[in-house]
Design brief:
CATH topology of the largest domain: Rossmann fold
Number of domains: 2
Shape: globular
Helix content: 25-40%
CATH superfamily of the largest domain: Vaccinia Virus protein VP39
CATH class of the largest domain: Alpha Beta
Number of helices: 9
CATH architecture of the largest domain: 3-Layer(aba) Sandwich
Order of helices and strands: HHHHEHEHHEEHEEEEEHE
Strand content: 15-25%
Number of strands: 10
């Protein structure tokens, strides 16, 4: 498909050209406006454009570069607001609403917890989040509203990001005890990864296919058999904002669910189980977190109650 013949692709390339010519991607009126327009352009789900099937080299190169620009801009945005929140004299977590995408994180956190609950019988006691960044909102939302007794270990390669993130929870009497921060490259994290019931891999860890797969392969090597891996992906035009994770990228894992939101939650959610565990009738037990065999009728019925059935894709092997 030639992008000139499609108005949406033409608009995305137009915005890409403007964004790539910015002197800085740090928060400003111009930066916020351009990225806001980009997200609005990529959100609609009624388009039949398959981004992976686009052969126009200009569009493919633009998408690859745009994902990296979006990741860089997101990092600056989180750093900016984490610094502001950390300057409050009282508990910074009381002011999370000032972050412009806080409501999206609330929705995404609830979505991921609900999807995870369909495949587990017990709340995980120990969770790892790889690529938590300067504003670990997913960890915070999960810890505050969904995993009230779970310890969450946050991993990030950037010491400055971890310092800002740690400052956000340091004055919270609960989360300061249950959120722990580690400064390391995910590829250097080996010993200890088998202690986690659930491992989250952030969308911004691995901004291209090769590095994303490399991170997944590393986790597959060191995670405990039967543990759950939760990843962020993208679908449709949203793949101009974030990398796509395919089932084929998850060698050594059984894909339990791929869910594509149709609202303003940008990321798709992928849930997979590390293979190699001793699978009984009730699933594989890792600590207190039990991974359940996929019950499609139950999952589809429940998701349909939330108006989500049409977006849920089950990809699974028989677990008997």
């Amino acid at each position: 498909m030639a992008y000139e013949s499609n108005l949406v692709l033409k608009q995305i390339i137009h915005l890409y050209n403007q964004i790539s010519n910015l002197e800085s991607l740090k928060p400003s009126k111009n930066v916020d406006t351009l990225f806001g327009q980009l997200v609005s352009t990529c959100l609609p789900t009624d388009t039949n454009i398959d981004v992976t099937a686009i052969h126009d080299e200009k569009v493919r190169d633009a998408r690859s570069h745009l994902i990296k620009l979006c990741g860089e801009a997101e990092g600056y945005l989180e750093e900016h607001f984490s610094t502001i929140l950390g300057s409050f004299e009282d508990n910074p977590l009381n002011h999370l609403h000032i972050f412009p995408y806080y409501n999206n994180y609330l929705k995404l956190g609830k979505l991921e917890f609900d999807l995870l609950s369909h495949h587990t019988t017990h709340v995980p006691t120990k969770v790892a989040f790889i690529g938590s960044g300067p504003m670990p909102l997913t960890s915070i939302v999960l810890a505050k509203f969904h995993l009230s007794n779970t310890t969450i270990h946050n991993f990030d390669i950037d010491s400055k990001a971890n310092k800002l993130a740690s400052s956000l929870v340091s004055r919270d009497p609960d989360l300061s005890k249950r959120m722990i921060f580690h400064t390391t490259d995910v590829l250097n994290a080996k010993e200890g990864l088998d202690q986690y019931d659930v491992v989250f891999l952030a969308a911004l860890v691995g901004m291209d296919k090769e590095s994303k797969v490399k991170a997944i392969e590393h986790l597959e090597k060191y995670m405990a058999p039967g543990a759950v891996l939760m990843l962020r992906s993208a679908h449709g035009l949203r793949a101009f904002l974030y990398p796509i994770v395919d089932s084929s990228d998850l060698k050594g894992f059984e894909v339990l669910t791929i869910y594509h939101p149709s609202d303003d939650v940008v990321n798709s959610v992928v849930i997979a189980r590390k293979l190699g565990g001793s699978n009984g009738v009730r699933g594989s037990q890792i600590g207190r977190c039990v991974v359940m065999p996929c019950n499609c009728s139950k999952v589809h019925a429940t998701m349909n109650n939330f108006g989500m059935k049409k977006n849920l894709i089950e990809e699974f092997s028989a677990i008997e």
